[in-house]
Predict the 3D structure of the following.
Amino acid sequence: MYDPTIFENIKVALENRVYDLDTLERKILITNRTDQMDFAILSRRFGIEFILLDNVDLRAEIVLGTSLRDLAGEILEMKGEEPGCSLTLRFVSTVPSNAVPYREIGQVLHTIWEQEIDITQTVSSVLGEEPAEFTYTIEAAFHTRINEEHMQEIGNFLVHVLRTMEALGRIIEAIQE
């Protein structure tokens, strides 16, 4: 009999909770989802993207990933391996200038998530586009690899994601004014 992997179990639980925020609680609107298998490196990636209903200018994406090493370690029950999944949050918005308060945003993220994340902030634009509009991307990669022991934390995790979106939304709104 087929035994679902850690990745599959977490993906289903996470996806269900996010869909509940959309369909039952009506706090968010899901705008995209991806479920990919990379045959070149035998990895899996699941992403679900959404916006807050009261702030359509900021998109969030939760990205769950796993590698060949994790999948093989789990399926083959290899000794010494601790299979799990990577977890990344991505927030994307457009801003009118490349003057973004990076430090303030970093402090907000570290306040909400403590020191559990590595933050990358990127501002980009299309050359020659007038007027210049900048895409601002914040990526927060978690240090801790997750497994089924973290399933009970998904609800609390999503509360923190929504808090992060609200805080970032306020900062980005101030930039846009």
